[in-house]
């Protein structure tokens, strides 16, 4: 039974291992596809990465959670690079949803989503995700203050782009009023102060604007040239509005001396310098910068059209290439799907065969187990029946032994009676004829009283034979050399009768019984130290 159970456990273990190995092989193959798509993206091969990603998704297989997240991030970034913002947002949202299953949703996810909506000028959604990011930052016991002030500044600037100037002012002030903000990030503090100055300028609060913009210029000088140049230009505009024309002109000269310039901003600065020179009645300077403005503007307009046309043509070519490759990929995917369906059909057929085989094996094992249980139960019942029969036999033997003792006693009386009769017969010879008839009548009556003793002995012998029938059969099968008288003697010895009692029953001398016992010992394999009765009890 234990061996059978062990074989069943081993078989189930091996079957499970085979199924797990098949699933592991398929999973590893899909994982290699995902790693290939991510590697292509890291190498800057965005088009190939997109095609490989869509091919993986078209297979319809279930990816692991980490692979799904990495693939969604890659698709969102690559699609955004090609200007497909709607699909980029779709996969970015999918990334957030999948990360939430890992309990990793937080400030990084919100700020990650913000850049997609900002690219599509969906400023309300951008602001929403940045505010969610702020809440996540503030919920931490030791929050990242640098990230906090950076997010505050971005929210303020997004409000400004969305023409929500009051809300923009609130968030710029949050940056400025945050404890140690200037020490934590001087550059962000300077830009937020400059942005606040721009709001004051738009509100025609030129002195307050100038105060804030000077801080921006001081902190960003030599570090962020775009912000520094913007600050210089805005300072010049503030002085112009305050009618400090010479100061405004000097600031513009400093701006023109900067090595790094944004041509669009420089175009505005040339136009504004011409305007300041007009206020100072400096026609020559005004004309010179106006000519610079016209030349730069013509250059920008001339270069802009070809560039836009080149971009459109390049984009169209890329789209056509992607469509063609996607069509080929779809054909390849369809072929792969057909092969997968065929392999799945074969796999299902094989699995069905395995299940039938396993079911048949389990059914066979079940029947074998049931048979073993049945035979074991039957053996147990048979042992119980034999034990009960043995107990009944022993009880019956005890009762017969009592009857035998009574018979032996009667036989003793009978022997005494015979001795008395012999003596009375001798006495009858000496009696006279007148009393002889009466004495014979009395003697006959005594004979009738004791003749039942012989019948009791016959009945007792018959009972002994019936009770010891199985013992006789077993003894005769094992030791066929024993005679019937010897087997009968063995049964009387098994009743633990003495040689004298047995001699009375058999109507022989005790010496004859002793000789018979010696003959029996020779025919039986009895040790010298073992008694004949002990040997017979062990049978």
Task: Summarize, please.
It is built from 22 helices and no strands.
Q: Could you walk me through the main structural features you see in this protein, from its secondary elements to its overall organization?
A:
With 539 residues, the protein is mostly helical. The chain has helices at 2-42, 46-58, 65-81, 85-101, 107-119, 123-139, 145-161, 165-177, 181-184, 186-202, 206-220, 225-241, 245-257, 263-279, 283-430, 433-450, 452-467, 469-478, 484-494, 499-506, 510-523, 532-537. The chain has 22 helices and no strands. Helix content is 86%, strand content 0%. α10 runs antiparallel to α11, α15 (283-430) runs antiparallel to α17 (452-467) and α20 (499-506) packs across α21. The longest helix has 148 residues, at 283-430.
Question: Keywords for this structure?
Answer:
539 residues; 86% helix; rod-shaped; mainly alpha; disordered N terminus
Query: What's the total count of β strands?
Result: 0
What's the main sheet like? none
pLDDT below 50 for ≥5 consecutive residues: which ranges?
1-24
% residues in beta strands: under 5%
Give the distance, in angstroms, between the N- and C-terminal Cα atoms. Answer: 31 Å
Number of helices: 22
Q: How do the helices and strands follow one another from N- to C-terminus? A: HHHHHHHHHHHHHHHHHHHHHH
Supply the helix-strand structural class. Answer: mainly alpha
Q: What overall form do the CA principal axes indicate?
A: rod-shaped
The whole-number mean of residue pLDDT values reads 77
Rg for CA atoms:
60 Å
Helix content: over 70%
């Amino acid at each position: 039974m234990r061996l059978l159970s062990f074989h069943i456990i081993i078989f189930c273990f091996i079957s499970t291992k085979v199924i797990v190995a098949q699933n592991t092989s398929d999973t590893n193959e899909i994982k290699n596809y995902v790693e290939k798509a991510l590697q292509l993206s890291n190498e800057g091969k965005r088009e190939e990465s997109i095609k490989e990603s869509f091919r993986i998704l078209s297979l319809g297989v279930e990816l692991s959670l980490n692979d799904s997240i990495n693939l969604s991030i890659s698709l969102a970034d690559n699609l955004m690079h090609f200007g497909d913002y709607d699909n980029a947002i779709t996969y970015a949202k999918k990334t957030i949803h999948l990360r939430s299953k890992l309990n990793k949703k937080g400030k990084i996810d919100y700020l990650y989503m913000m850049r997609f909506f900002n690219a599509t000028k969906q400023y309300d959604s951008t602001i929403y995700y940045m505010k969610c990011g702020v809440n996540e930052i503030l919920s931490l016991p030791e929050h990242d203050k640098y990230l906090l002030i950076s997010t505050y500044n971005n929210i303020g600037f997004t409000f400004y782009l969305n023409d929500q100037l009051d809300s923009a002012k609130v968030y710029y002030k949050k940056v400025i009023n945050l404890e140690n903000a200037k020490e934590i990030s001087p550059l962000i503090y300077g830009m937020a102060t400059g942005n606040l100055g721009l709001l004051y300028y738009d509100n025609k609060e030129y002195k307050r604007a100038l105060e804030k913009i000077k801080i921006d210029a001081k902190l960003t000088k030599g570090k962020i040239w775009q912000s520094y140049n913007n600050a210089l230009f805005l300072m010049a505009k503030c002085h112009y509005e305050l009618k400090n024309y010479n100061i405004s002109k000097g600031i513009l000269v400093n701006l023109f001396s900067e090595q790094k310039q944004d041509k669009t901003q420089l175009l505005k600065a040339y136009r504004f310098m011409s305007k300041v020179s007009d206020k100072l009645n400096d026609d020559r300077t005004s004309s010179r910068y106006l000519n610079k403005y016209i030349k730069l503007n013509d250059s920008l307009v001339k270069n802009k059209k070809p560039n836009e046309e080149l971009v459109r043509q390049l984009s169209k070519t890329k789209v056509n290439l992607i469509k063609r490759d996607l069509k080929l990929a779809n054909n390849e995917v369809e072929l792969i799907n057909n092969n997968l369906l065929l392999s799945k059909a074969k796999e299902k057929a094989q699995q069905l065969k395995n299940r039938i085989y396993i079911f048949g094996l389990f059914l066979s094992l079940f029947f074998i187990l049931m048979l073993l249980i049945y035979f074991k139960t039957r053996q147990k019942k048979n042992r119980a029946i034999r034990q009960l029969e043995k107990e009944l036999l022993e009880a019956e033997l005890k009762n017969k032994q009592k009857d035998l003792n009574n018979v032996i006693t009667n036989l003793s009386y009978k022997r005494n009676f015979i001795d008395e009769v012999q003596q009375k017969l001798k006495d009858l010879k000496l009696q006279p004829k007148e009393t002889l008839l009466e004495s014979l009548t009395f003697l006959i009556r005594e004979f009738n009283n004791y003749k039942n003793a012989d019948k009791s002995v016959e009945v007792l012998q018959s009972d002994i034979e019936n009770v010891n029938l199985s013992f006789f059969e077993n003894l005769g099968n094992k030791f066929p050399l024993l005679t019937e008288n010897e087997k009968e003697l063995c049964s009387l010895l098994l009743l633990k009768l003495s040689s004298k009692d047995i001699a009375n029953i058999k109507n022989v001398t005790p010496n004859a019984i002793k000789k018979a016992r010696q003959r029996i010992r020779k025919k039986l394999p009895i040790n010298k130290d073992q008694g004949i009765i002990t040997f017979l009890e062990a049978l």
